[in-house]
Amino acid sequence: MRRTHLSRAALAAGPALAVGLLLPAAPARADSPLPLTAVSDRQTTVRGGEFTLTLTLTNPYDTPIQFVYQSVQETYPTSLEPGLKFTATACGTQTNGCSDNVHGGIARYDVPLAPGASSSFTITYTVAPDSACGATRIDFYSYLYYEYNGGLASNSGIVDIPGTQVVCG
After folding, report:
1. Distance (Å, rounded) from C-alpha 120 to C-alpha 107?
2. Is 40 helix (H, G, I), strand (E, B) or coil?
């Protein structure tokens, strides 16, 4: 009889142990909301037109933000739009600028970023004169990672960035 109780206990403990081992493997959530705002200067633009994204990082901590990595990439639905053509034509204000490859590149904020201070950068996109238009949208997302508290703490996550609709003009 003892073996039966031990077998049942082992069977019950097995799934609990497996769940316990898998829980720590879940991706970490941001320890607080990301202090990033993103705006587009236009909700619509025409073929041959342009629009500018402004991204602003504000330090909500009582220690400086000392390291920032940020990428800006088109969303998957945007990448699937047939005939959509646009390029980044200008990058950077109030920062050290962007890498040469804005899509997947690095925004170089001025760091350290003091407590309560903000730093912004802009990316201007130009839509090709022969680009698709109509219900076509250009949308972006950003992956943001930053460190603060002398590098002992960090936060990261993905932020949706509003883009613009390309209308026929």
Report:
1. 10
2. strand
DSSP code per residue over 96-134? S-B-S--BT--B---SSB-TT-EEEEEEEEEE-TT---S
88 in Cβ contact with 134 (< 8 Å): no
**pLDDT for res 19:** 41
Note the pLDDT tens digit of each residue in 88-113.
887 765 555 565 554 455 666 778 89
d(CA 66, CA 155): 12
Give the CA angle between residues 166, 73, 164 to the nearest 5°.
20
- Beginning with the edge strand found earlier in the chain, give each strand of the sheet holding 118-127 in spatial order: 36-40, 50-58, 118-127, 86-91
Q: How many CB atoms lie within 10 A of CB 7?
A: 10
The alpha carbon of residue 121 and the mean position of all alpha carbons in its chain are separated, in whole angstroms, by 14
Q: Which residues of 57-93 are buried (b: 16+ CB within 10 A; e: fewer)?
A: bebebeebbeebebbbbbbeebeebeebebebeebbe
Q: What is the CA radius of gyration of the chain?
A: 23
pLDDT tens column, 24-52? 333 334 456 899 999 999 999 999 999 99
